[in-house]
Amino acid sequence: MDLKKFSDQELINAFISGNNKCINVIITRHQSRVLGYIIVSVKDRDIANDIFQDTFIKVVNKLKVGAYNEQGKFIPWVLRIAHNLIIDHYRKTSRVKIVRSTDEYDIFNQLPVYDNNIEDEIMTKQTHDKIRDLVELLPKNQREVLKMRHYQEMNFKDIADSTNVSINTALGRMRYAIINLRKMVDQHGISLSI
Q1: Which domain holds residue 64?
Q2: CB-hemisphere CA count at 13 Å for 86?
Q3: CATH of the domain at 87
Q4: How far is CA 142 from the centre of its chain?
Q5: Is the Cβ–Cβ distance between 151 and 193 less than 8 Å?
Q6: 112 phi and psi, to 5 degrees?
Q7: What is the CATH number of the domain that holds 171?
Q8: CA separation for the pair 136, 143 (Å, rounded)
Q9: What is the pLDDT of residues 55-66, one digit of tens each?
Q10: What is the spatial distance between Cα 47 and Cα 17, in angstroms, rounded to a whole number?
């Protein structure tokens, strides 16, 4: 029996009935969409992978206890779980620890001092100018999405609406724009470590 031909609901029912292989098929089927959503939100692949794993751990646990009852809406349900975990992540990382100076410990002795000189500023400006030139070499649809996202700070829903494409297409164009930009940066030997 080829589990890949089963619908999501059939796989869920089979998993609940004890066929553990079904959950692997579901995860593999929806991995790129769920992981892509998380990466766009947290902008860090390692953190995104952790949240992705936590998402499907929650999905498995909820399926095992019968907490899923939204037939036909599996992916929106999974994305809602992922979204809540992303919010939890930001809540944890945004907590600011207050450190007070004491007689034995002076916080100002621990802080690094950065002194940007004019040479660093010139090099940074030159790097930014080179990157802008490379952006202009991208295919039109990739360049358009990249500019809307980074320069106009538009979200992907607004980008999709403005360009008359689906959100997935907008995300794909952004992904390819970044991949192509990285290749061009490597080809031109541009250092981004400024």
Answers
A1: 3-94
A2: 21
A3: 1.10.1740.10
A4: 18
A5: no
A6: -70, 150
A7: 1.10.10.10
A8: 7
A9: 999 999 998 888
A10: 32
> Could you tell me if residue 132 is inside a domain?
yes
- Check the CA dihedral 174-178-179-184 and report its sign: positive
Give 64-82 pLDDT, tens digit per residue. Answer: 888 887 677 888 899 999 9
109 in any annotated domain:
no
Confidence of residue 190 (pLDDT cuts 50, 70, 90): confident
The answer to whether residues 145 and 77 belong to one domain is no
- In sequence order, which residues have a C-beta less than 8 Å from that of residue 39 and are 6 or more positions away? 45, 48
Residues 125 and 76 in one domain: no
> Which one, of 173, 113, 114, lies nearest residue 149 by Cα?
173
DSSP character for 191? -
Distance in angstroms (rounded) separating the CA atoms of residues 77 and 37? 13
DSSP 98-161: P----SS--GGGTS------HHHHHHHHHHHHHHHHHHTTS-HHHHHHHIIIIIS---HHHHHH
| pTM, 2 dp | 0.49
CA dist 105 and 76 (Å) reads 50
CA separation for the pair 121, 194 (Å, rounded): 9
| Residue 123 one-letter amino acid | M
Mean pLDDT of the chain: 83
